[in-house]
Amino acid sequence: MQRRKFLASLGLATTSLLIEPKFSFSNFDNTTQLSISNIQEAINNSIPSRITRAQEQMKAAKIDLLFTLPGKNMTYLSKLRTGRSERLIALLLPQNGEPIVITPLFEESRLKKANSTIKTAPWEESESPYQLAVDIFKKLGVNRIGLEPSTDLNTYWKLRAIAPNNLELMDAEAIFTALRLQKSPEELAAIKYANQITLESIAGTHAALAVDKTELEVGAIVSQEMKKRGVSGGGLVQFGPSAALPHGGPSEVKLAKAMPVLIDVGCEVGGYASDITRTIFWGDSPSTKYKEIYNIVWQAQQAGVEAAKAGVECQEVDKAARNVIEKAGYGKYFTHRLGHGLGMDGHEFPYLVKGNSFKLQPGNVVTIEPGIYLPGEFGVRIEDVFLITEKGCEPLSQRVSTI
Predict the structure, then answer these.
(1) CA separation for the pair 222, 206 (Å, rounded)
(2) Which residues in 137-170 are b (16+ Cβ under 10 Å) and which e?
(3) What CATH number does the domain containing 333 carry?
(4) Model-level pTM?
(5) Alpha carbons 108 and 80: distance in angstroms, whole number
(6) Are residues 264 and 161 in the same domain?
(7) Is-contact 147 174, C-beta < 8 A?
(8) pLDDT in tens, 183-230
(9) Could you give the CA distance from residue 20 to residue 33 in angstroms, rounded to a whole number?
(10) Euclidean distance between CA atoms 89 and 386, whole angstroms
(11) CATH assignment at residue 31
């Protein structure tokens, strides 16, 4: 599919978008009391504008039709949420006209219930959905087909085997990246709301900590706190030495007095993720070493925050935070990238990491999450979510202070 050539031709192999979308980053709606339901309604109402933007990107990339399998990208363009199986479901978006969903006939009514206006092309169990797709390509007169980036090889080969020779199957990752990279006001509202629920859930969990509770038990408390607030979610809970593993636990490790507790969790609101990490010293007053490490990590996050703004390369933000930890003598204990994009996926482009020269743009949402992990002792990570602006970055979660 000549992925590198395609990305390079679109400019996303380096630093630019196909077409930079324009949004206002004012409050979602100053007159609206935010709730999960009205955020979801606003996101659903934005689908037509997303389709228009996708078609503009397709014209710029000279792609005739997008072929999208179930997943976040399909939801982004249709609000449909359905799983993948051996029975093909695919959304076809032509450069001009309405999207069409290829679906098993017995699934059609379910999809229509989720989106009553979607146009469908049903197939019987005895028929080939891949042949149906190729027939639709021919009927629409399209030759350059952009495949959604998570399209599996099996689907590619089944289409390729029966498609005419003049039909090109291309990687459309750059288009979906461009569409989802800059967050709209309703997307920002969803992310911010999810972050607030996550912070409240972490606080509720901290209040329930007790000697001999296991990481698994505390993890269940986090999930229950989220459920109380109308969402599902969870993540990592790590005590003491377990917290020295950046993505370790939860396990049967039991909580004791004077033990660091690391909680890295998230949830979803309207299909958009949160991702927050908090580390506390539970019990007696923090040790001198814990205070030292915690404050170094906070200073590293602050350095990343001060570096992050539109026009700055992702790797430079990572470098700014990493320099703080290296100068303090703990560089080898900061073992992962500084952060990642956040949206419909908990981890998505852009990534704040050495080697990524992508320049941040207004409307990007990223985490900044430095950490220091001391094997056999403890680990500290502080993670918050930020909106990139022309002048800097704005927190989408309430930050902590030094201790």
Answers:
(1) 9
(2) beebebebbbbbbebeeebeebbeeebeeebebb
(3) 3.90.230.10
(4) 0.91
(5) 12
(6) no
(7) no
(8) 999 999 999 999 999 999 999 999 999 999 999 999 999 999 999 999
(9) 30
(10) 35
(11) 3.40.350.10
Question: What is the three-state SS of 12-63?
Answer: CCCCCCCCCCCCCCCCCCCCCCCCHHHHHHHHHHCHHHHHHHHHHHHHHHCC
**Measured between alpha carbons, how far is 38 from 112 in angstroms, rounded to an integer?**
21
243 burial via Cβ count (<10 Å: 0-12, 13-18, 19+): buried
| Closest to 100 in 3D by CA, of 73, 136, 70, 126 | 136
- Residue owning tokens 């038990």: 217
Q: Which two tokens stand for residue 212?
A: 């001999």
Check whether residue 176 and residue 212 sit in a common domain. Answer: no
The answer to whether the beta carbons of residues 277 and 263 sit under 8 Å apart is: yes
pLDDT averaged per 10 residues, the chain (length 403):
37 40 45 80 95 97 98 96 95 97 96 93 97 97 97 97 96 96 96 97 97 97 96 96 90 94 97 98 93 98 98 98 98 98 97 98 98 98 97 96 96
Pair type for strands 90-94 and 100-104: antiparallel
Residue 302's SS3 state is helix
Point out the domain boundary residue: 155, 181, 207. 181
Question: What crossing angle do the helices spanning 36-45 and 47-61 adopt, rounded to 10°?
Answer: 40
Length of the chain: 403
Torsion, CA 265, CA 267, CA 273, CA 277, rounded to 10: -20
Q: Regarding beta strands 144-147 and 168-171, do their DSSP bridges make them parallel or antiparallel, or are they unpaired? A: parallel
Beta strands in 343-397 (DSSP E): 348-352, 365-368, 371-374, 378-381, 384-388, 393-395
Tokens for 358, please give them: 């992508």
Nearest to 180 by CA among 18, 312, 338, 378: 18
Q: Give the contacts of 105 (CB within 8 A, at least 6 positions apart).
A: 122, 123, 124, 125
Question: Cα(225)–Cα(100) distance, rounded to whole angstroms?
Answer: 40
Q: Which of 161, 181, 201 is the last residue of a domain?
A: 181
Give the angle subtended at the CA of 376 by the CAs of 378 and 339, to the nearest 5°: 45
* Residues 145 and 281 placed together within one structural domain of the fold: no
Would the CA dihedral through 201, 207, 208, 209 be positive or negative?
Answer: positive
146: β partners: 66, 170
DSSP single-letter state for residue 95 = S
- The count of other CB atoms within 10 Å of the CB of residue 37 is 10
